[in-house]
Amino acid sequence: MNSDKSLEVNHSDIEVNSLSFSVQENRILNQVTARFSTRQIHCILGQNGAGKSTLLKCLSKELNPSEGSVLWATRPLKTLSYAQLALQRAVLSQSAELSFSFTVEQLVRLGVEVRGHCEQTAEIIHAVLQVCDMQPLQTRDYLTLSGGEQKRAQLARVLAQIWPIESQAPQAFRGKWLLLDEWTAGLDIKHQQQLGRYFKEWAKQGLGIIMVLHDISFAAQLSDQCLILQSGKVYSQGLVLDCLTQTSLREALEINARVEIDPISQRPFIYPVLESF
């Protein structure tokens, strides 16, 4: 099944062409072709082992594909240096841990330093700490924080890497990317919703967001586009409304769910149904 509502092609797109990734004899990704555009929130869904995190790592150049290619804003990703990419995209990995002491503010400063010399360092740190609700904890030792607080501190760090100098400009994030792997893990619902609203606003300002999620209901409310992986292959890609159907959830994710369309937002509400064996 391939629900392909093609995105409008622009020069900031990330284009994946027949990408495969193997570890020894195990093919984790198999001939994946997809497109991601700025000003959109893209969600990658699939069962455990479907290849979601591996695809995200190939997009960030953490992993090199065994076959196929990734075009980053029309340029082969493999030709871009990590220094060049650091100015265009920020990545929050599934596990981003520290084994030594840093205050929250020092951690976030590392994100700013990736940009090189920046006269607005203090303003950027203040802004991302505020967005991530970490200002009251900015002097705390990172190792003393709860799991959810550590996740928000790490998110503030990666945001500092791409935070616009003039954050009120209509296209403040134009051409920038945010790649997130299970960013909701450990976060309470309040902060999931709060950050989700920010993501929607930043997408309007030009940011491209690609996230791996397991929470299908949240993905349905947050995302513009959806990519479903099944055993390393693309099951479907397109608008959330087209991809997240009862049939696709049953066939690709092997879950039973009731799907209802909200008449106002035209987004699907997904209700998993627990049935007896």
Label this structure with key terms:
single chain; 277 residues; alpha/beta; Rossmann fold; six-stranded mixed β-sheet; four-stranded antiparallel β-sheet; 9 helices; 31% helix
How would you describe what is shown here?
There is one protein chain. The chain is of the alpha/beta class and 277 residues long. It has a domain at 89-174: P-loop containing nucleotide triphosphate hydrolases (Rossmann fold). Helix content is 31%, strand content 26%. It is built from nine helices and twelve strands. The strands form three sheets. Strands 6-7-8-3-9-10 form a six-stranded mixed β-sheet, sandwiched between helices. Strands 2-1-4-5 form a four-stranded antiparallel β-sheet, with helices on one face. It has a two-stranded antiparallel sheet with strand order 11-12. Helix 6 links the parallel strand 7 (177-181) and strand 8 (208-212). Helix 3 (104-113) packs parallel to helix 5 and helix 4 (121-131) crosses helix 5. The chain is globular and about 50 Å long. Mean pLDDT is 90; it is low at 2-9.
Layout of helices and strands:
Layout: E1 14-23, E2 26-36, E3 41-45, H1 52-60, E4 67-72, E5 75-76, H2 82-86, E6 89-92, H3 104-113, H4 121-131, H5 147-162, E7 177-181, H6 189-204, E8 208-212, H7 216-222, E9 225-230, E10 233-239, H8 240-243, H9 246-252, E11 257-261, E12 268-272
